[in-house]
Write a structure and sequence with these properties.
Radius of gyration of chain B: 16 Å
Number of domains of chain B: 2
Number of domains of chain C: 3
Number of helices of chain B: 5
Number of helices of chain C: 20
CATH topology of the largest domain in chain C: Aldehyde Oxidoreductase, domain 4
Oligomer: heterotrimer
Radius of gyration of chain C: 28 Å
CATH superfamily of the largest domain in chain C: Aldehyde oxidase/xanthine dehydrogenase, molybdopterin binding domain
CATH class of the largest domain in chain C: Alpha Beta
Distance between the termini of chain B: 44 Å
Strand order of the largest sheet of chain B: 2-1-5-3-4
Largest sheet of chain B: 5 strands, mixed
Helix content of chain C: 25-40%
Distance between the termini of chain C: 75 Å
CATH architecture of the largest domain in chain C: 2-Layer Sandwich
Strand content of chain B: 5-15%
Chains: A alpha+beta, B alpha+beta, C alpha+beta
Shape of chain C: globular
CATH superfamily of the largest domain in chain B: Beta-grasp domain
CATH architecture of the largest domain in chain B: Roll
Number of strands of chain B: 5
Chain lengths: ~290, ~170, ~800
């Protein structure tokens, strides 16, 4: 299983990357390569040029930007997983990263690469959508920004302009006193691509009243999507009994999702399981907050 | 393009096509055949090497990407406290626990274990299971591999010393 | 001899072969390169079924670095033979198995996606692959035949082969079976599906072929499980080469599981082309090619009926099987679903009347052949599922239902209704032990505890038997086998007392270097370190049949044992001569030859040296040297048996099945190296768990293999297993010197029905009675949904 032939270049600036993309419309950027190299090996991708962005300064750092944690496009998944800023401010990302591949692929795979690769069942895009991350790109000498929710438009399809290169992703820090998260997925084997996945990030104020409930699903449609849930939840007296309100809200939200099917799972299975995983993700997140409150 | 990669402490230089993977560089250029091609699409882990001390899949890395990194293959996994050519504690534990059968996935398993025990010297069975879950073995059923890594962890902690004649 | 006790038969010694593997110094076929070698790449059919209208090689042949491009026409023009079927069976009507031609490069038609159409040979693999992309094949597409159940009425795949049926075979007494059913109190019926698997040894197949035009001889390095069989087939049937001019070397081989038994087209093409081009030719499969063209396994539909009498004893069994054999007949495709399957339908049970019919069907999919267990897992799956289905129907505990139907331990030798005679066994002992290990009695409380956590918990048994140590040549021959199935050994004692053993068996993970050496060291009373095992090279080893069917120890090990006995006999004569005693007064014990009743003795080393320094041997009755050969042909198969028990938990909302406990107790006869045996048991269980929960070869309706990568074909990983509890009981095989039965396939045979029985048991409170393999999350979830819908109606 050998790639077709291609040229290789290691620019040291983002603008040089953009120039390469402009001169080679079929060029592909390689970051960690954990998704691109298999596609090259299977000859599903046959670019004339591969552009390695590992030698551009400043793409491998995670920085604290007051209200946000900003992750460079070349930050390896393993680094993000063990990072204190991520652990402190982005607990959902930390939770999800343990489901991404295996230790040897996380050692090379990047947060940014996973986002622009946009596999519909990948975990990092799901987290980005859940948390409303911003993807910052360089294109034609300017910086452009995309919100995660608008960025993914199809399987392996994003809004990335043809000559743009992602350089960092900004995740807003939680603003409330209490944060809970939940992440669940079902796959044939752990760390395989998810048949269905759900992520929840919930924030509650000092009084234990939920102020922000963000829930999203992945693996069941062409790209990860938020499920709007509008229920009043008060955790001041401990874990809330939501009755059927949550499941009803999730079911209603899923009605608007176009669900895919393939040889691994049908649409009806994906719908029901996504609903259950979404319920569990919210449940986990609420329990975390309730526990912190008690 | 001309590529130089530090493999097992020696610089290996060759003119290669950019499409050559680190796996093919290690096997065909450096001539180190202990790194195996199992699937060449990044799932089986038979091609695992250490890149700057971390287990990675050499089939998923272009040789060009590995320039400037230090690569360690199974051929260089010796014990630091033993004579050259003798088995490291991890390797010895694999032999003692029958953690290998046909030997094809074995180098990858040993390197995955080595990385785990560097980061976590006292892993639980569950953590060992997770650490090697990216490496496919079709022979063993994994139980004796996990036994081996648990045994190695104990011994690296100075407990349960190996018998002579490893 | 203290070392002997620690290292001999029964000791869990470390494997001698481990040092090379653990240090990365194993030498596999793809590690071999020859000066001046060329690389082969095969153009494969991308359609399942088509006439080849034309193959245009012009552009490819003109490419820089391309040495040659060969097509099926070139092969045919050269009079090259096709791949053969090594075992055939008679049809019910007395006619013979239909054996359509299987050319090593397709000429007129392609019959599966992956079928070999052309071979490109170039100075690099990259060039060969690039040129292969330029070979333009024009097809006239024909309808794909994928569905096994309707294959008989689908498009004709082989000219003149009616109903796409290779054979239509039967075994057993149909009238007696019908009679049993007419008298039955209960008749239990089920249709069961044995899913299609892809063996996936982690080392892909590979070959390096060399031709020496001065000597007119060949060397072929191949990833084979049986070098001499490969040599016989490639020389005598395909390339018409004198066997003496062909050396086959199987170096270290990275797993086989059956898929590396057969001669494949690629290695035959490379050998043929090596002579044409007078250059070494190397080919290594990539994983996609392996998925497409390695022989697949299993793939049956079984219609099963079981008859029970008033006492819940089984009195009759009828099984009608459709076996999917793919686009061509692979070497052992016919015997696998027939004699290796139908003969096992009695299992561990006293069933007076059994009848089975097997139809071997062609489809436009890859050839299907033996995969770990080969026929016996399929038989065991249907029988052990039926045992649970029947037990449920009559309301009896499945363990108890098995127990009352077991062949009693005083009934051996036991003649089954399906041709086999079991020499010895005790099926209750391993059942009891396994029940105790898993705490069977405590299961209901574990089920209740799981229910509190919202999980369905289930337990499943499988009491299996297998026919191993294949086999007596006389039986094999009488049943249509075209080979003998003895094994060979040469034991060569060196002048300094070290011993080299040359075996016809082949080790590709089984640990022969150690197990065989333990036998020799034990019998000769010498250190294990003094024994070397040589295998895998036709120029070094005696003509042997190789390794498959759990035969290496029972047949190959016994051959070694017999050769060692001959060495000891000769050693006695040498010792008698040296000690001036009568041959008949000599005895050999603890590594010493002694005159009985005296303190006169010679060590094994002294005898060895004397054999090669025969200064005063009486040459009229004593030849120099100490080297003996044995060919061992057993009297019967061996019959390992045992009980495996799986315990699972199911998440009802997602259908995810988690294997939470496993206990098994096997009777493999005597154990030589228990540590190695345990590894074999674990590995077999892992493959069975893969079949039951994860693995499935999936072709779409156009005959495209959708599961052709490790991303889509799911093999078990470390996190799919709990720790496995393993134990043994022993009834020693009665007809080989070592009392051994074989252990390589047991886990793969026993485990799938144990798991599926556990899954069905977990869901049985909902009314679920069946589950097909693999029990994927969606299938399990759907079974739960359907049961709940039914309950609500």
């Amino acid at each position: 299983m050998k790639s077709a032939s291609f040229d290789y270049i290691r620019p040291d600036t983002l603008d040089a990357v953009c120039a390469c993309l402009a001169s080679h419309p079929d060029a592909r950027i390689i970051a960690g390569g954990q998704s691109l190299v298999p596609m090259l090996a299977m000859r599903l991708a046959r670019p004339s040029l591969v552009i390695d962005i590992a030698h551009i300064d400043g793409l491998s750092a995670i920085r604290d930007d007051d209200s946000a944690v900003v992750i460079g496009a070349m930050v390896r998944q393993a680094k993000a997983l063990s990072d204190l800023l991520v652990a402190t401010h982005l607990p959902l990302l930390a939770k999800a990263l343990t489901h991404v591949g295996h230790p040897p692929t996380r050692a090379r795979g990047t947060v940014g690469g996973s986002l622009v690769h946009a596999d519909p069942s990948a975990e990092i895009p799901l987290v980005a959508v859940t948390l409303g991350a911003s993807l910052r790109m360089r294109d034609a000498g300017e910086d452009v920004e995309f919100h995660a929710e608008e960025f993914f438009i199809g399987p392996m399809l994003t809004m990335t302009p043809p000559t743009a290169c992602l350089f960092e992703i900004s995740f807003a820090k939680p603003t409330c006193a209490y944060v809970g998260t939940g992440f669940h997925e079902v796959a044939a084997r752990r760390s395989d691509y998810a048949l269905a996945a759900a992520a929840a990030h919930i924030e509650a104020d000092d009084a234990g009243v939920v102020q922000d409930l963000r829930l999203a699903i992945g693996g069941i449609s062409d790209f990860p999507q938020r499920l709007p849930i509008d229920i009043h939840i008060d955790l001041s007296a401990g874990m809330a009994d939501l009755g059927t309100s949550l499941t009803t809200a999730i079911d209603a939200a899923l009605d608007d999702v176009d669900i895919v099917e393939d040889m691994h799972a049908s649409a009806s299975y994906r719908r029901r399981v996504a609903a259950e995983l979404a319920r569990r993700a919210v449940d986990d997140a609420l329990r975390e907050i309730a526990q912190d409150l008690s | 393009m001309n590529i130089t990669i530090d493999i097992n402490g020696k610089d290996v230089t060759a003119a290669i096509e950019p499409r050559v993977t680190l796996l093919d560089f290690v096997r065909d250029v450096a001539g180190l055949k202990g790194t195996h091609a199992g699937c060449e699409h990044g799932v089986c882990g038979a091609c695992t090497v250490l890149l700057d001390g971390e287990a990675v899949r050499s089939c998923l890395i272009l040789a060009a990407q590995a320039e400037g990194s230090q690569i360690t293959t199974i051929e260089a996994v010796d014990g630091t406290t033993r004579q050259p050519g003798e088995l490291s504690i991890i390797q010895d534990a694999f032999c003692e626990s029958h953690g290998l059968q046909c030997g094809y996935c074995t180098p990858g398993m040993v390197l995955a274990a080595k990385t785990l025990l560097q980061h976590n010297p006292t892993p639980s069975r569950e953590q060992v299971r997770d650490a090697i879950s990216g490496n496919i073995c079709r022979c063993t059923g994994y139980v004796q591999i996990i036994d081996a890594i648990m045994l190695a962890a104990e011994r690296l902690q100075g407990r349960n010393q190996p018998a002579d004649g490893a | 001899m203290p070392e002997g006790i620690a290292e001999g038969i029964g000791a869990s010694v470390r494997r001698k072969e481990d040092r090379k593997f653990i240090t990365g110094r194993g030498r596999y076929t793809d590690d071999i390169n020859r000066a001046g070698q060329l690389h082969a790449f095969f153009v494969r059919s991308d359609v399942a079924h088509a006439k080849i209208k034309s193959v245009d090689i012009k552009k490819a042949a003109a490419m820089d670095g391309v040495a040659a491009v060969y097509t099926g026409q070139d092969i045919a023009d050269d009079g090259v033979g096709g791949l053969i079927c090594g075992w055939v069976v008679p049809n019910r009507d007395g006619s013979a198995t239909h054996e359509p031609p299987h050319p090593i490069l397709a000429k007129d038609k392609v019959r599966y996606v992956g079928d070999h159409v052309a071979m490109v040979v170039a100075d690099s693999l990259a060039t060969a692959q690039a040129a292969a992309e330029l070979v333009n094949v024009t097809y006239e597409t024909l309808p794909a035949v994928v569905d096994l159940a309707s294959a008989a009425t689908a498009a004709e795949i082989h000219d003149g082969m009616a109903n796409n049926t290779y054979f239509d075979w039967e075994l057993g007494d149909e009238a007696a079976t019908a009679d049993a059913f007419s008298k039955a109190k209960h008749v239990v019926s089920a249709t069961l599906r044995n899913n299609r698997l892809i063996p996936n040894a982690v080392e892909p197949r590979a070959a390096v072929a060399e031709y020496d035009h001065i000597a007119d001889s060949y060397v072929l390095h191949s990833t084979t499980q049986n070098p001499h069989l490969l040599r016989l087939v490639i020389c005598a049937f395909v390339l018409n080469i004198p066997e003496s001019k062909m050396q086959i070397v199987a170096p270290d081989v990275g797993g086989g599981f059956g898929s590396k038994i057969y001669l494949y087209a690629e290695e035959a093409c490379c050998t043929w082309a090596a002579k044409k081009l007078r250059r070494p030719i190397k080919w290594t499969a990539d994983r996609t090619q392996a998925f497409l063209s390695d022989a697949h396994g299993r793939d049956h539909i079984n219609k099963v009926q079981m008859a029970l009498d008033d006492n819940n004893k089984i009195i009759g069994l009828r099984v009608d099987t459709l076996a999917n054999l793919g686009g061509y007949l692979s070497a052992f495709a016919v015997v696998t679903p027939t004699y290796l399957h139908g003969t096992l339908l009695s299992g561990c049970y006293a069933i007076p009347a059994i009848y089975t019919n097997v139809k071997g069907m062609a489809t436009t999919t890859a050839p299907v052949d033996a995969y770990r267990g080969a026929g016996r897992p399929e038989a065991t799956f249907l029988l052990e599922r039926m045992m649970n289905i029947a037990a449920a129907e009559i309301g009896m505990d499945p363990a108890e239902f098995r127990r009352i139907n077991f062949i009693p331990k005083d009934a051996f030798p036991y003649q089954t209704a399906v041709a086999l005679q079991y020499d010895i066994g005790d099926y209750e002992a391993p059942l009891d032990r396994a029940l105790e290990m898993i705490d069977y009695k405590g299961f209901e409380s574990r089920r209740a505890e799981a229910a509190k956590r919202g999980k369905y918990r289930g337990i499943g048994l499988s009491s299996y038997i297998e026919a191993c140590g294949i086999a007596p040549s006389a039986v094999v021959g009488a049943l249509g086998g075209r080979v003998g199935l003895y094994e060979s050994a040469v034991v060569r004692v060196d002048p300094t007392g070290t011993v080299s053993v040359f075996t016809g068996a082949h080790s590709h993970g089984q640990g022969h270097d150690t197990t065989f050496a333990q036998i020799v060291a034990d019998k000769l009373g010498i250190p294990l370190a003094n024994v070397e095992i040589v295998h895998g090279d036709t120029n070094r080893i005696p003509f042997g049949m190789g390794t498959y069917g759990s035969r290496s120890l029972a047949v190959g090990g016994t051959a070694i044992s017999k050769a060692v006995d001959k060495v000891i006999e000769k050693g006695k004569i040498i010792a008698a001569h040296m000690l001036e005693a009568a041959d008949s007064d000599m005895e050999f014990k603890d590594g010493k030859f002694a005159v009985a009743g005296t303190d006169k003795e010679k060590s094994f080393g002294e005898i060895a040296l004397s054999a090669y320094v025969p200064h005063n041997f009486p040459h009229d009755r004593l030849e120099p040297g100490l080297e003996e050969t044995a060919f061992y042909d057993p009297l019967n198969f061996t019959y390992p048996s045992g009980t495996h028990i799986a315990e699972v938990e199911i998440d009802p909302a997602t259908g995810v099945v988690t294997l939470v406990d496993w206990a098994c107790c096997d009777d493999f006869g005597n154990l030589i190296n228990p540590m190695i045996v345990e590894g074999q048991v674990h590995g077999g269980i892992a493959q069975g768990v893969g079949q039951a929960l994860l693995e499935n070869a999936h072709y779409d309706e156009n005959g495209q293999l959708l599961t052709a990568s490790y991303m889509d074909y799911c093999m078990p990983r470390a996190d799919n297993f709990p720790s496995l509890q393993v134990d043994y009981t022993v009834t020693a095989c009665t007809h080989n010197d070592l009392g051994v039965k074989g252990c390589g396939e047991a886990g793969a045979i026993a485990s799938p029905p144990a798991l599926i029985n556990a899954v069905v048991d977990a869901l049985s409170p909902l009314g679920v009675t069946d589950m097909t393999m693999p029990a994927s999350p969606e299938k399990v979830w759907r079974a739960i949904q359907n049961a709940q819908t039914k309950a609500a109606e």
